[in-house]
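Dear colleague,

Following up on Tuesday's group meeting, I ran the structure prediction for the two-component complex that the binding team flagged. I've pasted the input sequences exactly as they went in, so you can double-check that nothing got truncated or mislabelled along the way. The structure tokens for the whole assembly follow below. Feel free to forward this to whoever is handling the docking comparison.

Inputs:
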Amino acid sequence: MDVLDKGIEKLGTDPDTGYASFRLGSFTFRRDEYFAHVSWPKGSQIIEIDRFLRAMVRDIGWGFFYGWIFFDDIFGTTNHYGTVDIFAGSYDRGCKDAGIDLLETFPAETVAHAFETISRDWISEGYDPLNAPLETGSPIGPKGKERTDPLLRAFIAADRMLGLEDDKAVRSDATGHPINRAFADMAFDAPEIECEPGFEGQLHAINLFDHIARSDVTWNPSISAVTRANICCVTSEEHMLPVIHGNDRNEWFIQLSDEIHWNIADKNTGAPRGRVVMKAGDVCAMPADIRHQGFAPKRAMLMVMENGTPGLETRYASGELKPYPVDFS
Amino acid sequence: MAYRTHVGALDSYEKGVIELDDDLRKYAFSNIFEVAGAAAPFERVAVVQNLDYVAEVMRVEGDSPWFAAPHDEFATVMDGEVVFHFVKLEDGQKPGHEGGAAQLGAKPNGAVMGKVTARRGHQVLLPEGAAYQLVSAKPAVALIQTVDGPVTVKRWSDICTLA
């Protein structure tokens, strides 16, 4: 695997829209009022701008996440944990058959810098792609005043458990996170912790639902608790996951409230396999050989269990590990 | 617009659907409340398995046995109210097995650390080095993040939607 040592280049500025265009390796990126345009030597792809920016900002924020992030059926990234592939058509049968696909590999920090540079230029004040569509403005139209606040809100990753002394804080009014409008009907109370003398600080509990209900971002998980490499992530989901996630390992979804509809497809070809509708209390594995995209009609609470053991991606890719998690025999 | 949030309970839940042109065993689709409803009190039924790691559903009804694990575990209460009692384990009492919860024969004779009272949505640390007991006067449900261990119960064919 060749890793390209090329950073992002600014190609120019559209005199009508005010947006800059960029090149990274063999890929060029430009936008107009409605769409992002990604081009490579043998092809090009057009992506609706809201979806493109929602995907790009999350891809950076997640650190390229586990495995494949498809912005749409054609364009996306693959995380190799140190390097990142940018691909176009590499996992689309039509593009592969036509021989117009392209995949290039870069250092992860090069892609992160490039995507942040593009996002920073293409996002104007009044639009926040991390917010649900009902909670932010629109990205369409010519360039406005650039935002000066951070585009990314920190991925909250507890080392042991949220709220412990010396660990990450739970969200609260004091941290600037009010209860989201979609969970205003819920009552939130605190667990009662009663420590005997000498054991103060050794017992701990939080209202996890309260923490999730205060999230000001969607489809952006945070880590609440860690057992060795067993990672409990929680997130609030509204509208649609703006990427299609292809797993490089098995992961598990636990629906804590409301419902999410998941479209499931073959990871390598994109061929549809069907759907899963998860309601409160449902548990479902997402195998390592699929891609999935979620749709949440109402803001919902989701728990995701990940196995963060280093090197799992290569053990799944080599076939050493089966692409599904449970042996029924 | 006023929103209405749906959460599940032992006596009130609606399971979703799985419609796939694939082997449904790969997805191990189950429901926490359905699993708890069919379980004996304090069984630790795996609903998640990620190689060495599991999440277990426990129906909490009455006083549980005492458990301990050689690592942190975490319990999220999904229905009802559960009181978690904790006792500090002495060095000679700490579990020697690789991972997961082990059931103790009786309440250990270490120092009482205290208790946590938790309800739906609360996540509780079950710390390494402590034994714990779960108590609930009425049926309640906990989801426990842990390691596949000596008392993990697996009955995937019974709990999963397969057709």
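Residues 181-216+218-317 of chain A form a domain with the Jelly Rolls fold (CATH 2.60.120.10).

Cheers,
M.
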